[in-house]
Design brief:
Layout (H helix, E strand, L loop, with lengths): L3 H25 L10 H6 L7 H15 L7 H11 L7 H10 L3 E8 L6 E5 L1 H15 L2
Antiparallel strand pairs: 1-2
Helix pairs in contact: 3-4, 3-5
Length: about 140
Amino acid sequence: METEIEILRRQLSELQLRVETLESYHKSSQPVQQRDLSIGEFIAEFNPKVSLNDKTLLVGYFKEINEKISPLTKSVIEAGFDEARESPPKNVSDSINNNLDKKFFVIVKNQKDEKSSERTFRITRAGIKRVEEEIKRRENK
């Protein structure tokens, strides 16, 4: 006749085997693919009252970092607002210039968009840091 301790040991052993079996299924299964975030969803994660200059920075960040579009142009920024279904600033160039003044964007020297005479620019490390700090701040809320 089994004692209580022997019964508990047997049950524990059975449970350990079940857990190991379940863990082996988990390890061998394919990781769940997360759907890519759209530019509209990305901007919506931020306070809707964020300034248009900040939205321009967010669009530039998304286009360059997520979509690997570089260098950026005014047309790329305008298209980003359109894709996000967001109202662009009345003067996109002023918003770009504001981010240039803040050192969040930098002009790319000697590069013009081949199809037009638009100036080209990139997001700077300061711009990337500004957006990523805001992302981390929102994740910690």
